[in-house]
Amino acid sequence: MRMKEFFGSKSSNSSCKFRFFMTWISSIESFGGRELFAVESLFKAHPNGCLVIVSTSMDSPRGMQVLNPFLEKGLRVTAISPDFMYLFKNTIGQAWIDNLMKGNIDPGEVSLGQNLSNLLRLGLLYKFGGIYLDTDVIVLKSFGKLRNVIGAQTIDVETRNWSRLNNAVMIFDKRHPLLYKFIEEFALTFDGNKWGHNGPYLVSRVVSRVSGRDGYNFTVFPPMAFYPVDWNRIGSLFLGPRNETQSKWLLLKLQQIQSGSLAVHLWNKQSRELEVEEGSIIQHIMSDCCVFCNSYSSKL
């Protein structure tokens, strides 16, 4: 299979130290500056990593043309169309995909592509092991020491326990039992009419059930690790300072993110149309995490 060939052998000669996956369910035209910068930041922190963008549209001559600047720098990235039956062979996910293709499953009102992306990331990690990232996640630091990790999006202010997890960043070993439980939950409880039911809410449901059980070795990282700003406040990272008070706040927030976060989720749905203002936190992050440092614009 192409993916195995791309990652290569496990020998010491292999240059693929980290396996990264992204999924892209939209057109090539919509794979723009933000997505490319997410790829830049990944390679800035992991120059010896390998990235597979699992996408039908990007797995094309035009798609590879978009990725060619990375290849010219010797970075290892490719696009490969998804093969659901191969990924989910001998799992309950295989039967679900089969039923979907036969028209026996109601896809619902939520984008089927989004829900297939939720499933696809689970299959990729289960089959190969590695690191999954959404295309609006900016990587700040190496994930080299992380193993079997998922991140909390929010915590309960009183108990300090997580209240919701998110599936935009996941790091897991191949065939990890928690991934199998995620796939099982997707197939058994799929609902195409509830946003998040098959994604963030799914991983939250499963982790709440298996926490403390023997055989599940994983860590839930606090929101600061991957989600230092929640979706309803993400706009604050794009704003430049308006006055001295705001300037001080921006500096403190930037220092907090730089010291305490491994990545920043940009919550694309809420922030896609925002301009990157001069002196903003995002502008500082872009200058720190770029590979092509003279090529980005104010529209991320």
Automatic annotation (TrEMBL):
This is Alpha 1,4-glycosyltransferase domain-containing protein. SUPFAM superfamilies: Nucleotide-diphospho-sugar transferases (SSF53448). Residues 172-295 form the Alpha 1,4-glycosyltransferase domain. InterPro entries: A1-4-GlycosylTfrase_dom, GlycoTrfase_DXD_sugar-bd_CS, Nucleotide-diphossugar_trans, Put_A1-4-GlycosylTfrase_plant.
